[in-house]
Description:
By secondary structure, the protein is mainly alpha-helical. It contains five helices and two strands; from the N terminus they run ββααααα.
Amino acid sequence: MSTAPRPDDRGRDRDDEGRARNARPRDGLGRPLPYGTEGVERQPEGVTRTPEETVAQAQALLDAGRPFHAHEVFEDAWKSGPDGERDLWKGLAQLAVGLTHSARGNVTGGARLLLRGAGAIGTGQWGERPYGIDVDGLVVWARQLAETLEAESLEGESVEGDGPTVDAAEHAPRLRGAGRGDGGGRG
């Protein structure tokens, strides 16, 4: 059983197996905070969930304006799921990270990740609505948000905190459709 990460001899946080595990607290958008600062509860890593649990937990995190944490849920599914679904979960993780960057003010990076995620989920062979996920609606949501971000961005490349931001909860996608709590896109 693994314990909480602890610093190694160089001050880097490591778990019992020696893997890097940053123990710094994080804010709602996943930004590291100084040690000793109270952050939001982090998602446990390496959790195997059913696809339905993954979608429900990720949607709750997106609705709460915590897309970085939703990305971690999708990443677990991507790493533990069947090979034929990895691009679906990876694409969903990219959508969540795209929203994260957008909320942090990195509009260029956010738009790129939204489009990359839309491309990944939009070209899959998993059927029309895998696990009830509104793939077509998510692709439209991601492309529209990316277009909005690009239109609002300042000249040149933006980096974190350098451009306009979006409210992560307000722009959270609906994973399963247009109804609140189940799908396509609100923002």
